[in-house]
Structure formats: structure tokens, C-alpha cells
Amino acid sequence: ISSTIALIVVGCSSSPKYVKTEVISNSTKTLETPEWVLNPSIIHEEGSNVVFVHKVTLSGSSRPDACVSMARTQAVGEMMKYIKNAVTTSGQVEDLNSSSDPSLSSLTAFLSQGNISGAKLTTTYWEQTMEADESGLKPTKKLMCAVQVAIEKSTLDRQMRDAINGTPGGNPEIRRKLLDAQKNFIDNVGNKDANKDTSSVEVKSDSNS
Q1: How crowded is residue 66: how many other Cβ atoms within 10 Å of its Cβ?
Q2: What is the β-pairing status of strands 139-152 and 49-59?
Q3: 53, 35 in Cβ contact below 8 A?
Q4: Band of residue 98 on the pLDDT scale cut at 50, 70, 90
Q5: What is d(CA 60, CA 106) in angstroms, rounded to the nearest whole number?
Q6: pLDDT band at residue 48, thresholds of 50, 70 and 90?
Q7: How far, CA to CA in Å, does 209 sit from each of 24, 28, 68, 182, 203?
Q8: Of 10-19, 65-74, 182-191, which one has max mean pLDDT?
Q9: What is the DSSP letter of 157?
């Protein structure tokens, strides 16, 4: 009887075979994901440029060109949203009653409307992968695309400062705190530890394109 019980335990404890993610097709025809796509930093400094990475994930039946087009359309807006969140929710500004201050309203409008000039799409990439579904057991096909948007750091710096200083009136302390937060953001763009959260920019959709 004991041997029978042992066999049952062994049979029940065997681990299921999980599906390993595999690139089955990509735009570079190498079946290898580029380092800039794998890098957890979504915004970084490259030479004199600030570079922002935006990714979109769709179902495997979607077309690569449609995925890249979607990422390209969203990229500048997502970059502005990221910068807005980084500056306006910093400790320097968040503890002030600044929601209706003209300088914050001006900066928020500038970033929300995407009125930035000088931002350029520099790189695009897509890949189809075979990966596990939510259960981890069944393979499913996914399509991911990524784009890089670059802008001169000095240009971004100037436009953000102009937006903060462009509206007269308001609380001088709030304006100063905003300028400090803006400078801190610009100075720390290259800090990898500060820019690792990709959850806010990766858009996932299962709809076919």
C-alpha cells in the first residue's frame, strides 16, 4: 500500500511544462531583441539628446505596420505625459497647493497638448513572439513594437522653462519649486535607476488591427 501511495504522490507532484517566450519573427530579421528594447529605462540620455522609448503590444494576428503606426502616433504624447508626471508629482511640488497656479497650469497645458517642437522619431522595431498565455501552459502569439523619440536636451529644457515662466502672476514659491523640479528632471534624465518603470507607457491590446 505504501508503494502505491508513493507512486500517486510522485505522479501528482510532477511540474507542468511552461512555455518559454521565443521570437519567431522581427523587423531586423535576426530573431534577437535589440538592447534598447530590452533596456528597462524608458527615458535616457544619448549624447546631447533625451530619448524616450514607447512600446505597444497587440495580439499576434495584428499587422506589424499597424502596430508601428500606433506606437509612432502615441509616442510624443506618452513622452509628454511621462515628463508631466515626473515634474508635477515630485516632492518639491506635490506638497504645495499648486493645482490652480498659473505657472503649473501653463506647464501642464504645454505638456498635455504635446506642443513640443524638435521631437523626432529616430528608430522603429517590431517582433512577433510565441509565449505563454495567462495559465503559463498554452502558447499564444503576440506582436510587440517599439519606437524611439529623441529631442535635444537643451531644447526640451528651454521649452519647459518657457512654459513655466510664460504666464504672469501666481505664487512665486510655486513657480520656484516648479523650476527646481524641472531642473532636477533634466539633470537626472540619464539616471537609469530613476527611469525603470515601463508600466505607465506600455499599451496592451488584444484587438486585431
Answers
A1: 16
A2: antiparallel
A3: no
A4: low
A5: 41
A6: very high
A7: 19, 22, 11, 38, 14
A8: 65-74
A9: H
Q: How is residue 34 annotated by DSSP?
A: -
Phi-psi label, residue 82: left if phi above 0, alpha if psi -120 to 50, beta otherwise: alpha
Res. 110: pLDDT tops 80: yes
- What single DSSP character describes residue 16? P
Please tell me the distance from the alpha carbon of residue 76 to that of residue 159, in angstroms, as a whole number.
Answer: 15
- DSSP classification of residue 194: G
Q: Which residues is 58 bridged to in the sheet? A: 143
Instruction: Answer yes or no: are the C-beta atoms of 181 and 90 closer than 8 Å.
Output: yes
Task: Please give the pLDDT value at position 105.
Answer: 87
CB atoms within 10 A of CB 9: 9
DSSP 3-state of 88: helix
**Residue of 105, 103, 148 lying closest to 125 (CA atoms):** 148
